[in-house]
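Hi,

I'm pasting everything inline rather than attaching a file, because the server keeps stripping attachments. The sequence lines come first, and each chain or strand is labelled.
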Amino acid sequence: MSSAITLIPASRTPLWRGRLLAWLIALPMLLVLAALLLAWSQPQAEIWAHLRAYVLVEVISNSVWLMLNVAIGVSVLGIGFAWLSAHCDYPGRRILDWALVLPLAMPTYVVAFAWIGVLDYSAPLQTSWRALSGSRASLFDGRGILGASVLLSLVLYPYVYVLARSAFLRQGAAGFDAARCLGHAPFSAFFRVALPLIRPAWVAGLSLALLETLADFGAVSILGVDTFTTAIYKTWFGLFSLAGAAQLATLLLLAVASVLLLEHWLRGNSQRREASVRPQPRLRLQGGRGWLASGGACLLIALGFGLPVLQLLSWLDLSNFDGSGLLAASSNTLLLGMCVATLVLLIGGGMAWLSHAKPSDGVRGSAEFVATLGYAIPGTVLAVAVMGLLIAGQHWTSEHMGLELALVGSILGVLIALCVRFLRVGHGAVQAGLTQLRPSLFESARLLGAGRAQRWRQIAWPQLRPSALAAMLLVLVETMKEMPATLMLRPFGWDTLAVRIYAQTAEGLWVQAAAPGLLLVAAGLLPVWWLVRSQH
Amino acid sequence: MRIQLSGAIVSVLFALIASNTATQAATPLVVYSERREPLIQPIFERYTRETGIEVRWLTDVAPVLIERLAAEGAATPADILLTVDAGSLWQAAERGVLKPVQSAKLEAAVPANLRDAQGRWFGISQRARTIIYSTERVAAANLSTYAALAEDQWRGKLCLRSSKKIYNQSLIAMMIARLGEVETEKVVRGWVANLAAPPFADDTLLVQAVAAGRCDVGIVNTYYLGRMIKDTPDLPVTVFWPDQATAGVHINISGAGVVAASQQPAAAQALLEWLVSAPIQAEFAALNLEFPVRTEVAADPIVAAWGAFRADPIHVAEAGRLQADAVRLMDRAGWK
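And the predicted assembly:
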């Protein structure tokens, strides 16, 4: 990639400034990493002998299978419907376009318990089937790897859908049409032309879905799948070895780092392309094919959103409604979400911008890589590391600066942990937008004598606004859904909706979590609705 | 815009940190609780009504609360740690976050096997983890001991909860203490071979599975069954008290201790003493259909209907001491 097409001329910004800034951004994650690596100084030979013999093989195989299945699931669903939504027309498309984003508002653990409520052997669906058929055998009860793969695909595909859809829209249909004119069938044209063009967006969405899968604890525990993350928790909670758990977490990060390098490699091959902004006529799906498309979309939304919400509604018990507590938790949830989303947009977006300006700087690039690793650390492990950092910070400030700060148990811990965790979400979305910027516009603007500020204000920002907004809203939803790190680091007496759900469900009483669960979904719908509106 | 926005965030941050320290300045009693909020809220509200002392709480799982206590050190706002498992209390005491308490009231009320010998923690309620069976498909005469569930007659008829749950870890730890590791592993392997379905994520699902006919027998904490019987009195599932001729039924506790760094240990101790007083014992246990630690206090009628039983008199601290061994044993035996 030549520097001629970057937005900031290389000579104007000194290299060290970008590097310093990038490493400053990466600092919290670097410290978390250091805290985790420090755990290796306490050898856990006995724990490792046990893990190697009885645990690791199974959990690694489970995790790999789960990720493969989810990768296929979210790619097929996400890209398929993104394409239909961007380039085709079918009955109900205008509503389905945005309704397909709805599952994004669902926390995976909420869907999992609703899912069990619908599919369990003792639930009405299966009992009536047994009554009708006279058999005692169980139908698919939604548990195990298959159940978890389907569930996670149904809830996580919107990451790919949202990013791929906006990429398809920006890309226009000219390339696809040209391929058609050259004699390619629609499928062939799609795979050979349209798909490669949106690869950055696809890969960004896919990596989010996969990292979420890897770090998921709630849903896989409910569905009885032992993954690498559940093994980390078991090592800590069951074998009393926090050091062993931290060591396992570093291995998990190693695996993640290789996935991310793969992503980097996949994205690195793609070049910035000129896009056509000419509105394209949509391919009208006729008759049965059109109804098939809308039927598929409806089914997807019903499974990932409608059914869980209905199950929660059926559990709702208004006689036990704690209005003021839930109101406070809702406003805390939104406040926390907005703070984290803004911070992540500034930090992650800034980082993506730096990298866009100087794509080939390895020093800065590795800072960026480290900074975005946090998305794969299971929440509680991240929380322990952040808590360690806060303690160190508290000691340091009181010794060296004479300040008595109450850092441990303050909101600062939650903010640091969530920013570290979700930086990747904001960064990835902005980066995907940046790679599709049209450099020729900047060249023209520069030739016409526009200054840096003006080029940013009048050209870059209008083009970047959708991805920046998407980044912010994705982080907002993610933050609101996050449970373990918020639970552990929250200030005393400061509850969010996820914390309220935990308070009710710790003993498997899912029914009592229906109210905070529904409110959390409703809160998640706000940014989802906004996200959808911004893209139209 | 960027500068304005970050300015706003910084001020919100400082406001939140400041408000956090401000709330710490007033000193109500603070409980870090693994026990769910609905089970402690009515009790602590009653304490406030009776004494005027406000009680506040923060809920999470015990290992996280213990780690948080250790991290907060002397600055912790917590006065009491309340958990739902003896193993966790043992672990908290080992970690040094609990303070020894000398109290004649607590020692008189709580049987010696349900409290720490050094007074760092005390049982507040007892929980029995026992066998449940389908009254439609199983004759109680066929049941005898936990170990007997490994027999061939239960092939494809047994349901268990995940081995990740500490209740099962404590059960197996106690079995190791009683039977030794070799014998316990044989039993657990037998159980795994008899499973009708992969282990469940919680006890409620397990009771439902027995009621619906997916399996005939299972092992749960009695209060899960109690709750369901409260809603559905004709549920075709009931409890069986195993090992009555030998060790007795496996008992665990929900218990509490005074936090080592508590600023008001005397007030914390007073709350613990109040919790084991006779009237509170009845309410505390009845809220979750558990058994009071004071043996002379009657349990809820639903619980009492299951009849008297011999409880294993082994010290519950064994659960903590042998928990890691139990987890390793369950992993070896393939209990997921």
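Confidence is low (pLDDT under 50) at residues 17-26 of chain B.

If the labels don't parse on your end, tell me and I'll reformat.
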